[in-house]
Write a structure and sequence with these properties.
Length: 364
């Protein structure tokens, strides 16, 4: 829930925050961070209003499911504070001042660890939700001093580009939406195998996520300042790291998949083949570089969303015939093909939009 509430806000703060920080310093960045936090609180309130009738209906018609309403209430309490960490963390990334992040404070780490382990010890028990509530209260108390500086900044509201959020939601459903579709006619074994395989291959995608996390603020600042020379140099430096690490992760999964799935039940007999098919798409996604990030930071988020939605619609139409004629392996190939196609189109569009190739750019 917190993830969906914050979809797109990280890209907004990173792009606009870099631009305002370069021109106005911390005051401009603070306005962007404050806008992000307020926007997330508004989204949470809207989500609460939409889900209140559902929660009350569950409470009325299924009194034995009262714990579901309790989970809903605790989620609404905790989600906005987790989600509001996104603009805060992004703002600190713009300044490269990680030490001010609340998660790096020793007191915060100790509190989270202590309450978190207690919650894990009571997992699936009624007391778990009390521990989880205490976890949320600790988060709120520790966050208050940090958020007080950004919740009510001066200045005019910042215009949020909703294409950031559209792109991220579409990317999520581009992969996992296929599982939702085939769940209506696929066997439980097929669904279990492809779900496990998709989680396994996410290890490759983590390489790109880590690199974007480390260099995302620099890429944004170079694009905002139109410093193509520095941008090319940075991309050339990170290109061999991306490719080498992604290939190593892909080889590790390719070789270890049959041994890892061999430890599980027979339901995962097909998982090795599916994992190897999905590896191809993830490898292409990493090897084209930070194409989507460059599109978003250069003000072309609409292009990124159009690419993802167009490919997603094609996949939605093709899922049934692929599965009907080729089984679960064909569905996995379709997911891999859609991810590779989206990545290649995004890389081409980013090159045209910025004049700089995302992976191993040429020129000075």
């Amino acid at each position: 829930m917190a993830v969906f509430i914050s979809f797109g806000m990280d890209q907004t703060v990173l792009r606009l925050g870099s631009k305002r920080f370069a021109k106005e310093g911390y005051s401009g960045l603070s306005e962007v961070m404050g806008f992000g936090a307020r926007s997330i609180i508004k989204r949470t309130a809207l989500f609460a209003m939409i889900t209140v009738p559902i929660a009350l209906g569950v409470w009325y018609f299924w009194p034995q499911k009262t714990e579901v309403v309790l989970q809903w209430a605790l989620a609404l309490l905790i989600a906005p504070f987790f989600a509001a960490l996104v603009p805060t963390a992004m703002g600190f990334r713009v300044q490269s001042r990680y030490k001010r992040s609340i998660l790096s404070e020793p007191s915060a780490v100790m509190t989270f660890a202590a309450v978190g382990f207690a919650a894990l010890g009571l997992l699936y028990e009624p007391q778990f939700w009390l521990a989880f509530g205490a976890y949320g209260v600790a988060l709120v108390l520790l966050s208050c001093p940090l958020f007080s500086a950004i919740y009510l900044p001066s200045g005019e509201p910042i215009r949020h580009d909703y294409h950031f959020g559209i792109t991220q939601v579409a990317q999520y459903f581009l992969q996992w939406g296929v599982i939702g579709q085939i769940s209506f006619y696929a066997t439980n074994q097929d669904i279990a195998a492809i779900s496990m395989s998709m989680r396994m291959v996410m290890l490759i995608n983590m390489v790109l996520i880590v690199v974007n996390t480390v260099n995302g603020n620099k890429i944004s600042q170079f694009i905002q300042s139109d410093d193509s020379t520095a941008l090319r140099q940075l991309l050339r430096q990170q290109s061999p790291i991306l490719i080498t690490t992604a290939l190593a992760a892909a080889m590790l999964l390719w070789i270890s998949a049959p041994y890892a799935y061999g430890l599980l039940s027979s339901d995962f007999d097909k998982a090795t083949q599916l994992t190897r098919l999905l590896i191809i798409g993830q490898l292409v996604n990493v090897c084209v570089g930070p194409a989507n990030l460059m599109l978003n930071m250069s003000g072309h988020a609409r292009i990124a969303s159009q690419i993802t939605i167009s490919v997603g619609l094609c996949v939605t139409v093709l899922v049934w015939p692929f599965y009907h004629f080729g089984g679960i392996a064909a569905a996995a190939f379709l997911i891999s093909l859609s991810l590779a196609t989206t990545s290649i189109l995004a890389a081409y569009s980013a090159t045209v939009a910025t004049g700089v190739r995302p992976m191993w750019p040429q020129g000075d």
